[in-house]
Design a protein that fits this description.
The protein is mainly α. Helix content is about 65%, strand content about 5%. It has one domain. The chain is elongated, with a radius of gyration of 25 Å. Bound molecules: zinc ion. The site of zinc ion (ZN) has 6 residues, from loops.
Length: about 150
């Protein structure tokens, strides 16, 4: 499994790990279905981190204003006409709202800038060292448990 930078797609040692969200899970599901899933870990390398933060802020703004706009449109464009009893107008507005929601979702998926973990993950070598230490700790815990069990049986 390779570690790739989200910004330029190059292989990196470490950086800010991209967190899973609904868009990433959806894309992974589609890739799994179409057999194009590569199972790489996606990072933001430290070189591109500032660039990433700007993009993420921009993305959050789009999500925020998009949601506010859709909520306003829903209230003004659908609930009010329903209350006034104008059915043909409601149908047109309903179709318009669905189109707006679809284009909003497309915008969110194609311009997707996922969240990353706050602390950078270091190079692979360090990570494998700490991983090698963990099983020993678990083994010693198991040994303690066995001793305890024996003690209980007596
Ligand atoms: Zn990079």
């Amino acid at each position: 499994m390779a570690r790739l930078c989200l910004i330029d797609g190059k292989e990196v040692d470490g950086g800010y790990r991209v967190m899973d969200d609904y868009v990433i899970r959806a894309l992974r599901w589609i890739k799994g279905k179409t057999g194009t899933l590569k199972n790489n870990e996606i990072f933001i390398c430290e070189e591109h981190y500032e660039d990433y933060l700007k993009k993420r802020k921009h993305y959050e703004k789009i999500m925020y204003y998009g949601a506010v706009f859709l909520a306003l449109f829903f209230v003004l464009g659908i609930i009010l006409p329903i209350l006034s009893g104008n059915i043909s107008r409601v149908l047109v507005l309903f179709a318009t709202t669905i189109l707006l929601v679809i284009s909003f979702v497309i915008l969110l998926v194609f311009g997707h800038v996922p969240k990353v973990e706050e602390k950078p993950t270091r190079a692979v070598k360090k990570a494998s060292k700490s991983a090698a230490k963990k099983p020993k700790k678990r083994a010693s815990k198991r040994a303690v448990k066995k001793k305890v069990r024996r003690g209980v049986k007596k």
